[in-house]
């Protein structure tokens, strides 16, 4: 029986994620990964052509952590899409320091498979074909954008630095505490999806 290789692609990807989670993307290097795994840096080239390929594998591993979110219930594809987007956003924010890495190295084939799956679900639930990719791509971009804002320290609906610029009523909404990033994301998504008109009977 053959020996299991000391280095595996998923092990390297996981080591890269752990380094970025702890110290940010700037800390990631082949030498740091190799040290973490107890091997020499050149041995990584037996499994990856370069650092870019390791980043892509790490991004893929993070994306695949997103849990499934079941089937559409009673034709409510809007809630189904929102639930999936929330799950993906939560996964990204579990690795907040790695969000830029995922954005820059998002595995294209995996993304295309997810898009195709989502289009099939929308089609099964009566969404016009000409709106399907528009909706799916927009949801993906809003999810990534929301995660990037929060991961880089830009909270939603925060009290302004210069409150005199705002009408008193608007300022009251900003300082009420009624809004946070999670609520803003869900309500933004729902407003967009209902506003597409694709959910009308």
TrEMBL record:
Keywords: DNA-binding, Transcription, Transcription regulation. Residues 29-48 bind DNA. GO terms for biological process: negative regulation of DNA-templated transcription; response to antibiotic. It holds the Pfam family TetR_N. One of its GO terms (molecular function) is transcription cis-regulatory region binding. The keyword Transcription applies. The keyword Transcription regulation applies. This is TetR family transcriptional regulator. It comes from Gordonia asplenii.
């Amino acid at each position: 029986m053959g020996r299991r290789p000391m280095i595996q692609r998923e092990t390297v990807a996981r080591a890269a994620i752990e380094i970025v989670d702890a110290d940010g993307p700037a800390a990631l290097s082949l030498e740091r990964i190799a040290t973490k795994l107890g091997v020499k840096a050149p041995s990584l080239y037996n499994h990856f052509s370069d650092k870019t390929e390791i980043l892509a594998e790490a991004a893929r591993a993070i994306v695949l952590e997103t849990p499934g979110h079941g089937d559409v219930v009673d034709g409510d594809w809007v809630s189904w899409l929102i639930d999936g987007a929330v799950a993906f956003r939560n996964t990204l924010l579990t690795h907040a320091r790695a969000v830029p890495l995922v954005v820059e190295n998002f595995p294209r084939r995996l993304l295309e498979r997810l898009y195709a799956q989502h289009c099939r679900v929308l089609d099964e639930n009566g969404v016009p074909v000409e709106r399907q990719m528009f909706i799916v791509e927009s949801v993906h971009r809003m999810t990534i954008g929301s995660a990037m804002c929060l991961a880089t320290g830009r909270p939603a609906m925060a009290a302004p630095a210069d409150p005199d610029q705002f009408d008193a009523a608007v300022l009251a909404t900003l300082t009420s505490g009624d809004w946070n990033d999670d609520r803003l994301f869900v309500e933004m998504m729902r407003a967009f999806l209902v506003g597409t008109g694709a959910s009308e009977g």
